[in-house]
Write a structure and sequence with these properties.
Elements: H1 2-18, H2 23-35, H3 39-61, H4 63-66, H5 69-96, H6 115-124, H7 127-144, H8 149-175, H9 183-213
Helix pairs in contact: 1-7, 1-8, 1-9, 2-6, 2-8, 3-6, 3-8, 5-7, 5-9
Length: about 210
């Protein structure tokens, strides 16, 4: 049950990064219009390869450092604060209807001949991606590692599955004339998931504060 809880929570938290318009979504839209519905999952494959590398680095390269209680406490506070800011931004954007799928692909066009490489490069060069893993991602891994490598594995599976679900849905919708994903549905999904993200932010903040007090 604990492993299932990690899987489900990481799946839902993963949408905090997946659903917000950004470079990866722009590449997905660009690729979907040229390659069809397969562009989404292929780009996420490259995205996932980079994330798996980061997780392995955090576990085996920096495990002892991040196992220190005061370090873990500060990570929890910063991760919770960033997650709260993210959730607030999602709710505000959904209510104001200031985000849309149409505007996400209007930036620089990325070469989609190698979509896997595009997923890696675009993710690595995105400050939002780096900041998420340095704060919220690190705290999620620390909590998951309490159950060993199996906990981290469940976290990664749930996290990457959210990316696959969302970007596959986007690429499928675009390849079929954008009839499967309407703006109103998108805005409500942003609001609901933003509220969920705020709940986890409170948990991270409380957990970090308690660790610093001991």
């Amino acid at each position: 049950m604990a492993l299932m809880g990690i899987f489900v929570s990481s799946f839902l938290i993963g949408f905090s990064g997946a659903m917000m318009p950004g470079p990866l979504l722009g590449v997905t839209i660009d690729g979907s219009l040229k390659k069809g519905w397969t562009a989404g999952p292929v780009i996420v494959l490259g995205h996932g390869i980079l994330e798996l590398f980061l997780i392995m680095l955090m576990i085996f390269g920096l495990r002892d450092f991040f196992a220190k209680q005061h370090v873990a406490g500060f990570i929890g506070l910063f991760g919770g604060a960033y997650l709260a800011w993210m959730g607030y931004g999602m709710i505000k954007s959904g209510l104001n209807k200031s985000v849309s799928l149409e505007t996400a692909g209007t930036g620089r066009s990325i070469d989609t001949k190698n979509l896997i490489l595009a997923g890696i490069v675009v993710s690595a060069s995105n400050p939002y991606f780096i900041l998420w893993w340095a704060t919220t991602g690190m705290e999620s891994i620390r909590l998951s590692y309490a159950l060993g490598l199996s906990g981290v594995f469940c976290f990664f599976c749930g996290h990457i599955l959210s990316d696959f679900v969302w970007y596959t849905a986007v690429s499928t919708a675009l390849s079929r004339g954008r009839k499967l994903l309407r703006a109103g549905v998108y805005h409500w999904l942003i609001i609901i998931l933003g509220a969920f993200i705020l709940v986890f932010a409170c948990y991270f903040l409380l957990n970090g504060w308690l660790m610093l007090r001991h």
